[in-house]
Design a protein that fits this description.
Layout: E1 4-5, E2 12-13, H1 22-28, E3 32-33, E4 37-42, E5 49-51, E6 54-56, H2 62-73, E7 75-76, E8 81-93, E9 96-107, E10 110-124, H3 128-134, E11 140-146, H4 153-172, E12 180-186, E13 189-194, H5 197-211, E14 214-225, E15 228-239, E16 246-250, E17 253-260, E18 263-268, E19 274-278, E20 286-290, E21 295-303, E22 306-310, E23 317-321, E24 333-339, E25 342-345
Parallel strand pairs: 4-10, 11-15
Antiparallel strand pairs: 1-2, 3-7, 5-6, 8-9, 9-10, 11-13, 12-13, 14-15, 16-17, 16-20, 17-18, 18-19, 21-22, 21-24, 22-23, 24-25
Helix pairs in contact: 4-5
Length: 347
């Protein structure tokens, strides 16, 4: 085997890289480097951190954020392969961490190794989203209302659950303005102030799919930024006039509403058969009762297609047509609503 003298150190070498022996080659390159002091900016309110000048949402612990910062600041010589990085750090106080970094890899077929130390200083700074949230910032208002009536508390709770579900989902997707800055209860409904207009619009669309609601938009000029007009959008979210549990009169027939959206479905209470129709065609239907008005009624007997119940006020037996959904036996207590002189057995 031929050995060549290294022109740098004079030692014989069987392999030379860029005209140097392996040791001199490794000494001539800067395989890995990191600044002696690294700053990472973290929001103390939400845990977001600054990356390349922009805030990034994060659910990581501070140690994971520091790891990410070190990996970002760590510079590896271009052309290096099979890189492995291990990081050990200790905190000297809540704002300063000392990191010891080991880096191994290959460069031009030579195994390279570096051990580095850096001081990571954690700077606390309120992020743009938290700053706006604390200042009551909002781009949209969602007004939760109902068509031709006031929404009840249960309906509002369900819509609000959807609002917070979508807000959190959009926040995780990177919309940092996806937050609720205010929630205001009014006699006619509830107003929700949303930081992100795109989130607010998505809420209204999904509410339509889930609850059968409709919405309209009303923009209001709120100012200018960089010569461009800025608008706030008010969304009037209207729940259907009919809601599950309503009992309505449709062309002389009494119907229990089970679902209402673009179509309304339920049961005919005299027969127990299924009911369904386009909601627009029910504009003239009249609310005559609700399952909230149900009373306990004693079922006296069942015979073929008729039943006999005891009227809860007169205590006299009343014969009714047996509804298809009735499956109990005589002597049991059932629920019914009284509308005028009529008794309707509920499912």
């Amino acid at each position: 085997m031929n050995y060549l003298a290294c022109p740098v150190c004079g030692q014989p070498s069987d392999t030379q890289i860029e005209g140097k022996c392996k040791d001199c080659f490794l000494q001539s390159i800067n395989f890995a480097s990191i600044p002696l002091v690294v700053h990472t900016i973290v929001c103390p309110m939400c845990g977001a951190f600054k990356k390349s000048g922009s805030w990034v949402e994060s659910n990581d612990e501070i140690e994971e954020i520091i790891n990410n910062t070190i990996n970002k600041e760590l510079k590896i010589l271009p052309g290096s392969e099979d890189i492995l990085v291990s990081i050990e750090f200790t905190d000297t106080n809540p704002s300063i961490y000392l990191a010891h970094i080991k880096v191994t890899g290959n460069i031009k077929g030579v195994k390279a190794h570096a051990e580095l130390d850096s001081e990571i200083r954690v700077v606390k700074e309120t992020c743009d989203a938290c700053s706006r949230l604390s200042g009551g910032y909002y781009e949209s208002i969602i007004q939760i209302r109902a068509e031709g009536r006031f929404p009840d508390e249960d309906e509002v709770v369900k819509v609000l659950e959807l609002v917070y579900e979508i807000v959190e989902r959009q926040k995780l997707k990177g919309d940092r303005l996806s937050f609720i800055s205010k929630e205001e209860k009014l006699h006619e409904g509830t107003d929700v102030y949303v930081g992100s207009n795109s989130t607010a619009k998505q809420i209204c669309r999904i509410a339509g799919e889930r609850f059968g609601s409709t919405f309209s938009e009303s923009p209001t000029l709120s100012g200018k930024k960089d010569g461009k007009e800025i608008y706030r959008i008010t969304y009037s979210l209207r729940l259907p006039r009919l809601k599950p549990g309503d009992i309505i009169n449709v062309e002389g027939k009494t119907v229990l509403v089970r679902h209402s959206g673009k179509r309304t479905s339920g049961l005919y209470l005299d027969s127990g058969l299924e009911f369904a129709d386009n909601t627009d065609r029910l504009k003239n239907s009249k609310n005559v009762s609700s399952i909230k008005d149900a009373e306990p009624v004693v079922l006296l007997s069942i015979e073929n297609d008729t039943v006999q119940v005891m009227h809860p006020k007169t205590f006299r037996p009343v014969t009714l047509k047996k509804p298809a959904y009735l499956s109990v036996e005589g002597g049991e207590e059932i629920r019914a609503v009284i509308i005028g002189d009529d008794i309707f057995i509920l499912p």
